[in-house]
Amino acid sequence: LKVRVVRSSPPSSQFKATFQESYQVYKRYQMTIHKDPPDKPTINQVRLVPVSFEDPQFKSSFNQSATLFAKYQMSVHKDTPSDCGENEFTRFLCDSPLEAEHAPNGPECGYGSFHQQYWLDGKIIAVGVIDILPYCVSSVYLYYDPDFSFLSLGVYSALR
After folding, report:
1. What is the SS3 assignment for 94?
2. Which run of H or E residues covers position 156?
3. Measured between alpha carbons, how far is residue 38 from residues 24, 96, 138 in Å?
4. Which has the higher per-residue pLDDT, 19 or 84?
5. What are the phi and psi torsion angles at 51 (to 5°)?
6. Hey, how many other C-beta atoms are within 10 angstroms of the C-beta on 146?
7. Less packed terminus of the chain by CB within 10 Å, N or C?
8. Are 133 and 59 in contact (CB under 8 A)?
9. Cα angle for residues 155, 157, 158 (degrees, 5° grid)
10. How many CA atoms lie within 13 A of 48 on its CB side?
11. Per residue in 65-119, pLDDT tens?
12. Nearest to 37 by CA among 135, 122, 153
């Protein structure tokens, strides 16, 4: 048995060279120990979308997100349809006091409020509402399609 300590952040050349192999071990572990399905969402199925009606991705996915929010609220929190309509969704998870800012030394996406959308087969199955700030990322809320609760998307989102 040989054990190596490999710097992951910033990624060292050893980390980059062994990434795929390490990922495959991780995936086998998750499937065997935690019974994760093989089609659990991957990083390629997650989109970070600025919360702005000016943003084309946000506008094009708004109805799907609002519908998913209502389904989640009614199933998980037993809200009535009038408690989770588009106006309530917008007020609760789209209207933000944060202004978008693109600092030269900040993240590529900038600072502000975002919807971290989890897509599977062309459909949004979860949305993490997050604020990206200069010294932290704040998880505001997560909602998901109850039909996919077996994927443990809340845990996945928190770890991500």
Report:
1. helix
2. helix 153-159
3. 11, 36, 29
4. 84
5. -80, 90
6. 12
7. N
8. no
9. 65
10. 15
11. 999 999 999 999 999 999 999 999 988 998 888 888 888 888 888 898 999 999 8
12. 153
**Tokens read off for 121:** 């087969």
Taking the model in full, what pTM does it have? 0.68
Q: Which of 74, 79, 80, 155 is nearest to 118 (CA)?
A: 155
Count the Cβ atoms, other than its own, within 10 Å of residue 64.
14
| Mean pLDDT, all residues of the chain | 85
**CA dist 129 → 8, 47, 92, 105 (Å):** 27, 12, 10, 23
Read off the pLDDT band of 43 (50, 70, 90): low
Length of the chain: 160
